[in-house]
Write a structure and sequence with these properties.
654 residues; alpha/beta; Rossmann fold; 3 domains; six-stranded mixed beta sheet; four-stranded antiparallel beta sheet; 22 helices; elongated; binds adenosine-5'-triphosphate; ABC-type oligopeptide transporter activity; ABC transporter ATP-binding protein; membrane
């Protein structure tokens, strides 16, 4: 990682990754940048600094991992730690027993040893082998179980955290990559990191005991065995960082590939894909994206391994040299045959251990980079939260809404979506919001539901700024149906009941909401009535038409008996009769509630007590239907245009 703490560096990298792959989508060139960072250290001092910061960052990552592992399963954590310590000592003991055995055999052959001694040593050796097998098995079991628990724990944490985050988080593409990395890449990393860390401890134990053995023969030998694997480690750590960078670049590409694949494999898209003959085009696009990303991956993996292996040959040469030296010492009679065996295996073990230490560390470094994305995700705090001392919602909310000079711009947008909007809705009033596409109507609703906070100005409910309330409490006083309502893959009753969790099992209330939304008649005709599964994702699901789904979504909004009723184009998919019926009922439904609805159908809009006309984020006209018609402005133009179209008259808007 280059300078700074991991989160800052990581944020920069994520940004770089998101903007380095501008369009790898449906058309255009497909390119993945070289993961080699432009500012990669060249001189020795810079490399040393980088190494230190890598090591520091990784070591600092350990306590968090230890905490995660402990949270996942304290028992398994203890088992792993203990078995690791034991298994660290076992190789040295094994080597030592082998020496004892050889020496006792040589002694017996030379006539001054006994068979009983050989049996004794052999029995001891059996004990050691058994202990090795048991610890290995224990470690494996603990590791596997811990992995499962960890995956569940992290996915749970990610889900719980995502549920807390603002809508704004989900509407940015950078966040998608972060969420994807956190939920898909991160779960395997803590155990992997913990295993590497414990592997380091184990190797450290083996290493220390073996080095002690080697030093007793010749300190220089120990020194050579120690230094030989260093270059391999340095190259590994460099490539570990690049692999992580590549994963970041590839993340948007993978997302694009998933999208392309879903276009071809999901029922919703199948119609258009077939009609426009998009299948082969999309498949080819998918294939080319895959090839590009595979090519990059292959280049890096091959280079990483080739360079790594070349450097590790150095250790192999050093190892053979040491073995030769020890053999010559034995021939000269300065070491016994047992010593020869012991030191040779000690030299090999030290080499393997040092390599293990380094690769273990490199693995930890790479895992830590992935974990940073998890921590960064978990560290993203929602901006829309309850104040320290939230104002209590009034016992009975009257539904008096007031916008005071409200402006709002979406993050990164050049133009404001709402610009200095002021209006008042009296309790119980029914208001229609109209305007051309993109005028800011849905945005106005999102602000009222506090899914976003205004950039300037304030919104009052019953005289209080809505930011003073707990957002959850505020939302519970609102029934809403959005333009892009959800079609839940569940039963009809569940689809409606989810509008008010308390009433999920209240059949009477669900049926009542369905009646009010005009959905009851269709649901009653379903094979299992309210228990019929809707949607085709699961077995026996029934497909509803667009308008039928919309009625179900409306019924869901009606589940809540809230003082504010907000409907964003509630009749866009309804037939003329259904729309008429709904608005006839809406008068009764809206009685005593403040109702705000968006509609492009002027026949229904004219019934509202107040009409607000938005144009490019500004409230340009405001009044009753008659007042606005008398003004002869935008509203009158659009109304006349629509009415004329119905009456088949040739009228051109002025
Ligand atoms: N999540 C978002 N991020 C950035 N810009 C957005 C986002 N949602 C909407 N916008 C922009 O804000 C402006 C207002 O959008 P809004 O959805 O409020 O329009 P609308 O009046 O409801 O339109 P329609 O009648 O088409 O539903 C549009 O220009 C749109 O591009």
């Amino acid at each position: 990682m280059h300078g700074g703490g991991p989160p800052v560096g990581l944020r920069k990298r994520l940004k770089a990754a998101a903007s380095s792959v501008p369009d790898s989508g449906l058309t255009g060139p497909i390119e993945i940048p070289d993961p080699k960072p432009a500012d990669e250290a060249k001189d020795l001092r810079a490399r040393w600094r980088r190494l230190r910061s890598n090591v520091g960052g990784t070591v600092r990552g350990l306590p968090k991992v230890a905490k995660l592992t402990w949270q996942a399963s304290p028992v398994m954590t203890v088992v792993i730690v203990l078995s690791t310590l034991v298994s660290g000592l076992l190789p040295t003991v094994t080597a030592y027993v082998a020496k004892l055995l050889l020496d006792s055999v040589v002694a017996a052959v030379q006539g001054h040893g006994t068979t009983a001694r050989i049996v004794e040593v052999a029995a001891f050796q059996l004990g050691i082998f058994t202990a090795t097998a048991v610890t290995t098995a224990l470690t494996n079991v603990a590791q596997q179980l811990l992995q499962e628990r960890m995956t569940l724990t992290i996915r749970h944490q990610v889900m719980a955290h995502a549920a807390r985050l603002d809508l704004a988080f989900f509407e940015g593409s950078e966040s998608y990559d972060l969420l994807r990395q956190a939920s898909q890449e991160a779960p395997s990393r803590p155990v992997s990191m913990m295993t590497s860390a414990l592997g380091l401890v184990r190797t450290g134990v083996t290493f220390a005991s073996m080095v002690a053995l080697l030093v007793s023969v010749n300190p220089l030998l120990a020194f050579v065995a120690l230094l030989a694997p260093v270059p391999a480690f340095i190259s590994q750590s460099k490539y570990g960082g690049r692999a992580f960078m590549l994963a970041l670049y590839i993340s948007p590409i993978r997302r694009r590939m998933d999208y392309l694949s879903s276009l071809v494999t999901t029922d919703t898209y199948a119609k258009e894909t077939k009609l426009f003959g998009l299948g082969p085009y999309l498949v080819d696009r998918f294939k080319r994206l895959g090839q590009t990303y595979y090519a990059r991956e292959r280049k890096l993996t091959t280079k990483r391994n080739l360079v790594g292996t070349s450097w590790s040959l150095l250790s192999t040469v050093a190892g053979s040299g040491i073995a030769l030296y020890i053999a010559l010492e034995a021939v000269a009679g300065r070491l016994t045959i047992g010593d020869l065996a012991l030191y040779t295996s000690a030299a090999t073990a030290v080499q393997t251990a040092v390599q293990g230490l380094f690769t273990g560390f490199t693995g930890m470094y790479e895992n830590n980079l992935y974990l940073d994305t998890l921590y960064q995700f978990l560290g993203t705090e929602p901006a829309i939260v309850a104040p320290v001392e939230p104002r209590r919602m009034p016992e009975k909310v009257r539904g008096h809404v007031r916008f005071e000079d409200v402006s709002f711009s979406y993050p990164g947008a050049a133009e404001p979506a709402l610009d200095g909007v002021s209006f008042e809705i009296r309790p119980g009033e029914t208001v229609a919001v109209v305007g051309r596409n993109g005028a800011g109507k849905s945005t106005l609703i999102k602000l009222l539901c506090r899914l976003y906070d205004p950039t300037a100005g304030r919104i009052l409910l019953d005289g209080n700024d809505i930011r003073e309330f707990d957002p959850d409490e505020l939302r519970s006083s609102i029934s809403a149906m959005f333009q892009d309502y959800v079609t839940y893959q569940g039963t009809a009753a569940e689809n409606i009941g989810l509008g008010e969790l308390d009433g999920l099992d209240d059949r009477e209330r669900i049926a009542d909401s369905a009646h009010r939304a005009g959905a009851a008649e269709r649901i009653e005709r379903l094979p299992k009535g309210y228990d019929s599964p809707l949607g085709r994702w699961f077995d026996q699901g029934v497909s509803l038409s667009g308008g039928e789904w919309q009625k179900v979504a409306l019924a869901r909004a009606f589940m809540r008996d809230a003082p504010l009723l907000i409907l964003d184009e509630p009749t866009s998919a309804l037939d003329a009769q259904a729309e008429h019926d709904l608005f006839t009922r809406l008068r009764a439904l809206a009685a005593g509630r403040t109702t705000l609805y968006i509609s492009h159908r002027f026949s229904t809009v004219r019934q509202a007590e107040q009409i607000m006309f938005l144009e490019q984020g500004k409230l340009v006209e405001h009044g009753t239907h008659d007042e606005l018609m008398a003004v002869g402005g935008h509203y009158a133009d659009l109304f006349t245009l629509q009415a004329a179209a119905y009456l088949d008259e040739q009228v051109s808007p002025s």
